[in-house]
Automatic annotation (TrEMBL), chain A:
Protein name: Glyoxylate reductase/hydroxypyruvate reductase
Residue ranges of domain D-isomer specific 2-hydroxyacid dehydrogenase NAD-binding in the record: 61-234
Keywords recorded for this protein, A-Z: Oxidoreductase
Keyword Oxidoreductase listed: yes
Annotated InterPro entries: D-isomer_2-hydroxyacid_DH, D-isomer_2_OHA_DH_cat_dom, D-isomer_DH_NAD-bd, NAD(P)-bd_dom_sf
Similarity comment: family membership: Belongs to the D-isomer specific 2-hydroxyacid dehydrogenase family.
Secretion signal span: none
Gene Ontology annotations for the cellular component aspect, listed alphabetically: cytosol
Record carries keyword Chaperone: no
Stretches assigned to the D-isomer specific 2-hydroxyacid dehydrogenase catalytic domain: 3-265
C-alpha cells in the first residue's frame, strides 16, 4: 500500500481470499481499518522509524521557512522594502506536541538553533532524554500553547488526537505564534484554523498535511497569505522512500512465510 | 520577546571628554546581574575586563562619574530617511534619537550650511546613504560611519580613511539570524519547499504525485566556505542534523572548535567542492573572494550538489552559475544575495526552476534589526568619545542574558588567541 492506496475495504478483502498482509508505506495507519483486516485474518505493517529524520527535517524546514517568510517572494518585486521583516528562530520557544521519535528529532534540531523547547506527550520522557535536548515537559497542553512561539504537531492520528487543535487551543496560542503540522490534517480543526488565521488569532501556519490532500482548489486555506502548505513531503526523499520500500518488502516476506512480522501494527 | 531584555542595557551615555570606560559603563548592568552566574562557571568577568585589550588602564566598572553632564548638544547622526522605502525603521530612529540628533538627508540638503557642522556620524542602513567623495567633503566634522550589518564591501574604506573617518560594523547582531537563513535555505532547496508550495496551491493540482522527491539533509555532507562567526554557527546547527561538516577557511580553526561541531578542515577548496552535497558560502566580499565560485569550481561540485549563498552576490560568477544550473552541472542553488539586488526582472536566474532566491533577508528580523542598530550606536558613541571600540567577544556575552551559558561552553579560545576568522573587527581601517 503506497500513499494510502489502494483503499482497503470489505469488497476488496472479500475478493482476495489468499491475502496475508497489507504493508503500508509511512508510519501513519489512520487510514487502515485494523479491526476489519483482523476479522479477515490479514496482518498489517507500517514503516515507522525510517521516516523519522526526514519528517523532522521537514518540520524544522517549515519552522524556518515560516518564521523568515521564505515563501513570500513575488515576481512583481521592484525593490526590497526595508521594513520587510521576519521573526527570529534563535531563542524562540518551540512547543512540540507529541514527543515520539519524530518529535524528539525535531527537538534535537531545534536545540542547535538555541530554541527553548517545551513538549506535551501522553507520557513524560525520562530525565536523560529531556536534558539531552533541554526539553521541558508540559503536562497540560494549555501551558505549552500559551508559551510557545512555534507549536509543532507530531502526534499520530487517533480518536484522541482528532481535532486536538481546535478553536480553544488556537485562542490559547500567542497571537505571534505559528502552528506547524507534520502529523495528519485531521489533528487540526481546519475550519477553526481558517478562522484563526483570518482574524490573526495566531500569526501563521505551515502545513505539510491537510484534510483532504490535496485540498479542494477553492479552499480558503489556499488563499491566505499567512499559510505555507506543502504537498505531504515529510518523507519525500529518494533514500527514505527506498528504505521504506525495503522495510515493506521485509514485512511482506515475513508475513508470507508465517514468520514474526517486523513493524507489524495491531 | 526573546531578547528584549538585552535592549534595555542601552542607557543614554553622556558624551564628555575624559570620561573613562564608556564601553564598560554601557555593559555594567549585565555584568552586575550575572556576576554569580559567571562565577559558577569559573569565570570572573570583572577580571577579564581588566585584562582585555580594550581595557583603559584597568579601571573598575563602577568608577564614579566625576564630571557632571553639561547641556551639551547631542552629536548629529545622518541617515537617509526615516521610514519609507529605504529609510531606517521607526523603532531604530527612536533608538538613535536617544543618543544623537537625528538628521535626515533631506534635512541636511535643505540646510547644508548649518547641518554639515553638526553631523559627526552617519548611520548606514542597507547600504544607504551612499558614502561618496562629495558627501565626505561636505561633512567636516564627520568622525565615524556606523554600518548596520557586517559587510562593508559597499564602502570605499580607503577613501573614507583618507578623510580621517572611521568605519564600524556589527558582526555580533548578524551572526545568528544569518546562520538561520543559511540553514533555512539549505532545507528549503533540499526538500524543494518553494516548488512544493506551488504544487500545493496551484489551481491545476488534482493529486500529489508520489514520485515527487527531494534530497536528504540529515547525514549529508555540508561544505562551509568561510568559517567565521556566521559559518561556525551554521556548523553548529548543521551538526544537529547529523551532517558531515567540511570547511575551508583562510586559517584553520582550533582543534576544540573543530571537534565541537565535528568539522573537518579542507586546506584546498577543491577537496571541499568535490565531496559536498551542500556548499555554503559564508565569506565576506573582498578582492580575494570576488568570483570565488566560477565555472571551474561549479564543475568540481557534484552534479547532485546544491550551492547556497549567504555572503555577497559577487562571490559567485553569476553567469557561470546560470549556465551550470541550466546544464545541470549542479542540482540547484539557493541565494539570499545576488548582484545586483534585486536582479533585473528579465535575468535568467529568475526563470530557472532549480533555484530559490530570497531578497537579502539574512538579518531581516525584528530582533536583528534592533540589535544591529544598538551595536552600531555603541560603536559610534565609542568613536565619538575617543574610546576603544567595544571588544566584541565580551559584548557577545552581554547582549542577551540567556546566551551567557552558551557563549561560555562553546568558546575555549577567549580571552586569549581568539581565532582571527571570528574576530571580525568592529573597526575597519582604510587599508587595501
Amino acid at each position: 500500500m503506497w500513499y494510502h492506496k489502494p483503499v482497503i475495504n470489505e469488497e476488496l478483502l472479500q475478493s482476495l481470499p489468499n491475502l496475508k498482509i497489507v504493508a503500508s508505506s509511512g508510519v501513519g495507519i489512520d487510514h487502515l481499518d485494523l479491526n476489519l483486516l483482523s476479522s479477515y485474518g490479514v496482518k498489517a505493517s507500517n514503516t515507522p522509524f525510517v521516516v523519522s529524520t526526514d519528517t523532522a527535517d521537514l518540520g524544522m524546514a517549515l519552522v524556518l521557512a515560516s518564521s523568515r517568510r521564505l515563501m513570500a517572494v513575488s515576481p512583481d518585486t521592484e525593490y526590497f522594502p526595508a521594513d520587510w521583516l521576519g521573526a527570529e528562530v534563535s531563542g524562540a520557544t518551540l512547543g512540540v506536541v507529541g514527543m515520539g521519535t519524530i518529535g524528539y528529532k525535531v527537538a534535537e534540531r531545534a536545540k542547535a538553533f538555541e530554541m527553548k523547547i517545551l513538549y506535551h506527550n501522553r507520557n513524560q520522557r525520562n530525565k536523560e532524554e529531556e536534558s539531552a535536548v533541554g526539553a521541558i515537559y508540559c503536562k497540560k497542553i494549555d501551558d505549552l500553547l500559551q508559551q510557545s512561539d512555534f507549536v509543532l504537531l507530531s502526534v499520530n492520528l487517533t480518536p484522541q488526537t482528532h481535532k486536538l487543535i481546535g478553536k480553544k487551543e488556537l485562542e490559547l496560542m500567542k497571537p505571534t505564534a505559528t502552528l506547524i503540522n507534520i502529523s495528519r490534517g485531521l489533528v487540526v480543526d481546519q475550519d477553526a484554523l481558517v478562522e484563526a488565521l483570518q482574524n490573526k488569532v495566531i500569526k501563521a501556519a505551515a502545513l505539510d498535511v491537510t484534510y483532504p490532500e490535496p485540498l479542494p482548489r477553492d479552499h480558503p486555506l489556499l488563499k491566505l497569505k499567512n499559510v505555507i502548505i506543502t504537498p505531504h513531503i515529510g518523507s519525500a526523499t529518494k533514500k527514505t522512500r527506498r528504505l521504506m520500500m525495503e522495510n515493506m518488502t521485509e514485512s511482506i516476506q515475513a508475513g508470507l512465510a508465517g514468520l514474526p512480522i517486523p513493524n507489524e501494527v495491531f | 520577546m526573546f531578547r528584549s531584555k538585552a535592549f534595555s542595557l542601552l542607557k543614554p551615555i553622556p558624551l564628555m571628554s575624559g570620561q573613562p570606560n564608556l564601553a564598560y559603563k554601557f555593559i555594567h548592568p549585565a555584568i552586575a546581574s550575572h556576576g554569580h552566574r559567571c562565577h559558577r562557571r569559573g569565570v570572573d568577568y570583572r577580571q577579564r575586563y581588566k585584562t582585555c585589550p580594550g581595557s583603559a588602564g584597568g579601571q573598575t566598572i563602577s568608577a564614579p562619574q566625576t564630571k557632571v553632564m553639561a547641556e551639551e548638544e547631542l552629536p548629529g547622526v545622518l541617515v537617509l530617511d526615516i521610514g519609507g522605502t529605504h529609510g531606517v525603521l521607526e523603532n531604530v530612529a527612536a533608538l538613535l534619537k536617544k543618543h544623537f540628533r537625528l538628521i535626515t538627508m533631506k534635512e541636511f540638503l535643505e540646510n547644508k550650511k548649518e547641518m554639515s557642522k553638526k553631523i559627526q556620524s552617519v548611520f548606514v542602513f542597507e547600504g544607504r546613504p551612499t558614502i561618496d567623495q562629495e558627501l565626505l567633503e561636505s561633512l567636516p566634522n564627520l568622525k565615524v560611519i556606523g554600518n548596520s550589518g557586517v559587510g562593508v564591501d559597499h564602502l570605499d574604506l580607503k577613501m573614507i580613511s583618507n578623510f580621517g573617518v572611521k568605519v564600524t560594523n556589527t558582526p555580533h547582531a548578524v551572526a545568528d539570524p544569518t546562520a538561520d537563513i543559511g540553514v533555512a535555505l539549505m532545507l528549503a532547496s533540499a526538500r524543494r519547499l518553494v516548488e512544493g508550495c506551488q504544487v500545493a496551491v496551484s489551481p491545476d493540482t488534482k493529486y500529489f504525485a508520489v514520485d515527487w522527491l527531494g534530497v536528504e539533509v540529515t547525514r549529508a555532507t555540508l561544505g562551509i566556505i568561510g568559517m567565521g562567526s556566521i559559518g561556525y554557527r551554521v556548523a553548529q546547527r548543521a551538526r544537529a542534523f547529523d551532517m558531515r561538516i567540511l570547511y575551508h577557511n583562510r586559517n584553520r580553526r582550533r582543534k576544540e572548535e573543530e571537534e565541537a561541531v565535528g568539522a573537518h578542515y579542507c586546506e584546498k577548496m577543491e577537496d571541499l567542492l568535490q565531496q559536498s552535497d551542500f556548499v555554503m558560502l559564508v565569506v565576506n566580499l573582498t578582492p580575494e573572494t570576488h568570483k570565488l565560485i566560477g565555472k571551474k569550481e561549479l564543475g568540481l561540485m557534484k552534479p547532485t550538489a546544491i550551492l547556497i549563498n549567504i555572503s555577497r552576490g559577487a562571490v559567485i560568477d553569476q553567469d557561470a552559475l546560470v549556465e551550470a544550473l541550466q546544464s545541470k552541472v549542479i542540482r540547484a542553488a539557493a541565494l539570499d544575495v545576488t548582484h545586483p539586488e534585486p536582479l533585473p526582472r528579465d535575468h535568467p536566474l529568475l526563470k530557472l526552476n532549480n533555484i530559490i532566491i530570497t531578497p537579502h533577508i539574512g538579518t531581516a528580523t525584528v530582533q536583528a534589526t534592533r540589535m544591529m542598530a544598538e551595536e552600531a550606536i555603541a560603536n559610534m558613541l565609542a568613536v565619538l568619545s575617543g574610546q576603544p571600540i567595544p571588544n566584541h567577544r565580551r559584548r557577545r556575552a552581554t547582549w542577551a542574558f540567556g546566551k551567557l551559558n552558551r557563549w561560555h561552553t562553546r568558546s575555549t579560545a577567549w580571552p586569549h588567541g581568539v581565532p582571527e576568522e571570528t574576530f571580525l573587527p568592529h573597526y575597519h581601517e582604510g587599508i587595501s
